[in-house]
Design a protein that fits this description.
- There is one protein chain.
- By secondary structure, the protein is of the alpha/beta class.
- Helices cover 42% and strands 24% of the residues.
């Protein structure tokens, strides 16, 4: 038999109040019920924790030592209550996001941090496959994916959809053009993202469907590396139209006959979707989308 929490609680209340009657009032129990719990504790361990007479209840030596322990126990209970309350009210805690492109989620993160300054928000960037792996390995609470995904383990929220955009350096021969078509990319030196990148996969699928060939000038990891490679003239890059940003070294070019759009989907593990911090963040994103 493990020690009874109910019996310890009754003992602690009597020791704190110096009275079975006042302990019963504090616990919202009858005085006989409190007495019964203390007596069961004494009988089970063969000890006496109180000296009792009609006017006075005093701790025995064993009772004094037990009271020292129950004080620590119930202090910890208060600390646990306070800690859990802080998490419930989002006064403290950590929210880890793994994202394929921070630009899509930063406005929501900024709003969340303003409302809940006690939450430590961390953002890691990677390609979509790596982001999803971090979510499933519990290294991230929320993930932002560059594609739609069907998985019963996930709760999903569609953020946006944007067309594919080519981009070149300002001194590239195409920099004065308003747009290009897929055929222009045929056998043109391309700056490609790493394997596992949705950007690269989308380009490969679109070109293959059109019967066109991709000529790799260089393969780089991450958007920033692709941006820098294009800026110094190593080739033509492609990106979601929402992610090119403002860079005076680069020129964005719509691909007029490209059917591919990049979607951004916010996901979390369905098993964790009831966590207060996650429901609050998702609700805030929905508010932004509806607004």
């Amino acid at each position: 038999m493990t020690i009874s929490h109910t019996q310890l609680k009754a003992f602690h209340a009597v020791a704190m109040n110096g009275s079975f009657t006042r302990a019963a009032e504090q616990l919202c129990l009858s005085q006989p019920a409190v007495s019964d719990q203390v007596r069961k504790l004494e009988d089970y361990y063969g000890v006496m924790v109180f000296y009792r007479d009609k006017r006075l209840v005093r701790l025995t030596e064993v009772g004094e030592r037990l009271f020292g322990l129950t004080q620590r126990l119930f202090d910890i209970s208060v600390d646990a209550h306070d800690m859990l309350t802080d998490y419930r009210t989002l006064s403290t805690g950590t929210l880890n996001l793994a994202v394929d492109a921070p630009v899509h989620v930063l406005p929501y993160v900024s709003r969340f941090c303003s409302r809940y300054p006690g939450i430590d928000v961390k953002i890691e960037t990677a390609n979509t496959d790596e982001v999803l792996q971090r979510l499933f390995s519990h290294q991230a609470d929320i993930a932002l994916l560059g594609r739609n995904i069907e998985d019963d383990r996930l709760m999903t929220l569609h953020l946006r959809s944007d067309p594919m955009l080519a981009f070149v350096a300002q001194d590239h021969p195409w920099a004065q053009r308003e747009s290009i078509c897929l055929a222009d990319l045929h056998d043109t030196p391309m700056v490609l993202r790493e394997q596992g990148s949705v950007t690269r996969l989308s380009l490969e699928e679109e070109m293959a469907a059109a019967g066109l060939h991709i000529r790799k000038a260089i393969e780089v990891e991450g958007r920033e590396a692709a941006r820098e490679a294009v800026a110094i003239g190593m080739g033509v890059g492609v990106v979601s139209a929402a992610e090119l940003g403002s860079d005076s070294r680069l020129r964005g070019l719509p691909i007029v006959d490209c059917q591919r759009h990049f979607t951004e989907t916010l996901v979390c593990l369905r098993a964790q979707s009831s966590r207060r911090i996650l429901t609050t963040f998702f609700d805030m994103v929905r508010e932004g989308l509806d607004g």
